[in-house]
Amino acid sequence: MALTSTKEILEKAHREGYAVGAFNVNNMEILQGVIEGSQETSAPVIVAVTEGAIRYAGFDYLVAMVRVAAEEASVPVALHLDHGRDPGVIRRCIEGGFTSVMIDASHMPFEENLKATKEVVEMARPFGVSVEAELGRLKGVEDLLSVKEREATLTDPEEAERFVRETGIDFLAPAIGTSHGAFKFKGKPKLDIDRLREIKGRVGIPLVLHGASTVPPWLLELLHSYGGKLDEAKGVPPDQLREAIASGVNKVNTDTDLRLAFTVAVRKVLQESPEVFDPRKILGPARDLIKRVVMEKNRLFGSAGKAS
Q1: SS3 303
Q2: Is 104 one of the catalytic residues?
Q3: Do residues 219 and 260 touch, judged by C-beta distance below 8 A?
Q4: Does residue 14 sit in helix, strand or coil?
Q5: Catalytic residue among 60, 82, 192, 278
Q6: Number of C-beta neighbours around residue 114 at 10 A
Q7: What are φ and ψ of residue 48, in 5° steps?
Q8: Is the pLDDT of residue 224 over 90?
Q9: Among 33, 58, 251, 295, which residue is least crowded by beta carbons within 10 Å?
C-alpha cells in the first residue's frame, strides 16, 4: 500500500487507547527490521528520520526506501521527520512526500515556539501533512539534540492547552520526565503521569512520548558480553510506559533500543566470526535483532494486531 497519513494512524490510536511506535531509521537494514517486525505483529508503524539521518543517508535515498517499504508492506506505514529545526529541511520534507513533520522549537521561549510552530502548520496544511510540536524540555542526548539537565523543564498543562489551540498542531510532545539517549535517569525512574493526564484532558489530541526507549536489560547484557560499555545506561521501565500509554500517549519514539540491537548483533558476528568480511553476513543479523525488538515494542505499546 502507499504511505499512510500519520494523522490517520494516530487518531485511531487516540480513539482506541493504544500507542504506535515511531522508529528511527538511518539505513536499509534498520528500515527492513522495523517493517518486518511491524508486519509480524500486524501493527501500524511510523518510520522516523532526523535531520542527521537525512545528511547521512540522503533525502532521496531515505524517501525512496520508505516508499518502497510502504508499497510492499501489509501494514500502514507513515513517514515522519523527527526533531525538525532547519526550516529548509522541514519544507523539503513537507513538499517531498513525508506524511508528518515535527517542528522542534522547544528550546525557544514559549511565544517564539508558538510562532515558529504556527508557521510550520500553515506551511504543511496545503500538502495534507500533519504536524507535531514539543513543549517543555527533555534532558539527554539524541542524534543532534543535546539538552543539559539543568535546562530541562516539564510541560505546563495550561500552556499546553493554549499552545495546541493557537497553533493547530495535530500531535503534542510534552515533557513529563523522560530524556533522550541511553542514560535517562540518575536515580529511580519516575514519569509525571498526573501531569500527562491533565495535559491529555486539556488538549484532546494524540500525545507523543520522546526519550521513551526502555534500554532492555537483556540487550545491555549482550552488549557487555561482546565488549560494549554502557554500564550506567537506564531506560523507561515498561510498567511506567504502559501507564503513560493508558494515560494518553499515542506515539512512542524509539531510537536508542534499535541502535543497541544493531550494535549488539554486529559485535557478535565480528567477535565470534572474525573471518567474515561479507557485509550481508554482518548486517543481516542486525536487521533480524531489530525485528525482534520492534515486535516486543509493538506488543508493549498495544499496537500489535491494530493494522486494520
Answers
A1: coil
A2: no
A3: yes
A4: helix
A5: 82
A6: 19
A7: -110, 140
A8: yes
A9: 58
Backbone angles phi, psi at 41, to 5 degrees: -105, 5
Specify the amino acid at residue 5: S
Query: Computed over its alpha carbons, how large is the radius of gyration of the chain?
Result: 18
At position 37, the amino acid (one-letter code) is G
Q: For residue 214, what is its C-alpha cell?
A: 526502555
**Alpha carbon 11 to chain centroid, angstroms:** 17
- Torsions phi, psi of 275, nearest 5? -80, -15
For 121, the grid coordinates are 502548520
pTM score: 0.92
Written as one letter, the residue type at 130 is S
Tell me how many degrees the CA angle 253-233-149 measures, rounded to the nearest 5.
Answer: 75
Please write the tens of the pLDDT for every residue from 32-58.
Answer: 999 999 999 999 999 999 999 999 999
pLDDT in tens, 141-169: 444 444 444 335 789 999 999 999 999 99
Q: What is the CB neighbour count within 10 angstroms for residue 273?
A: 11
23: cell is: 522508529
Question: Mean pLDDT across the chain, nearest whole number?
Answer: 92
